[in-house]
Specification:
Oligomer: single chain
Low-confidence stretches: none
Number of helices: 5
Mean pLDDT: 96
Radius of gyration: 13 Å
Largest sheet: 5 strands, parallel
Helix content: 25-40%
Order of helices and strands: HEHEEHEHEH
Strand order of the largest sheet: 2-1-3-4-5
């Protein structure tokens, strides 16, 4: 419902290659770690965003989206739904082109705000599942 095939394709192929992954840490047991690895294998630059600002998959981490000192194309959100809207608003503020809410992350109001701001958005999907389908 919140991710038509064409929007998924555009985000994965046309939105750019710098993906900020919010919630990405060095915890290999977390889904964000594995998804970030898949994105890297498909040529995406993965920028970890986590309060600890850890280096993950060889990329320097940042505590917030606003702390990233270069443009971000897509913001991939691995936080719970109650926090996701704030992250989407930050994505708009930093000038991202798209926002991707992971499986189980749903905030309909944030979806509407983000789309109204002109960004592409996918909700309740996983790019690690979708990107191999395009290759």
């Amino acid at each position: 419902m919140y991710a038509d095939a064409e929007t998924v394709r555009r985000i994965l192929t046309e939105s750019g290659d710098t993906w900020a992954v919010v919630g990405l840490s060095t915890n290999r047991a977390r889904a964000a770690y594995g998804v970030a690895g898949v994105l890297q294998r498909f040529g995406k630059r993965v920028v970890p965003v986590h309060p600890k600002a850890e280096t993950v998959h060889g990329e320097q981490g940042y505590g917030t989206l606003a702390a990233i000192p270069f443009p971000v194309d897509v913001v991939d959100v691995f936080v719970n739904s109650e926090l996701a809207g704030e992250v989407a608003d930050s994505a708009v503020d930093i000038g991202a082109k798209a926002v991707w809410f992971q499986l189980g992350v749903i905030d309909e109001d944030a979806y509407e705000r983000t789309r109204s701001a002109g960004l592409e958005m996918v909700m309740d999907r996983c790019p690690a599942i979708e990107i191999p389908k395009l290759a």
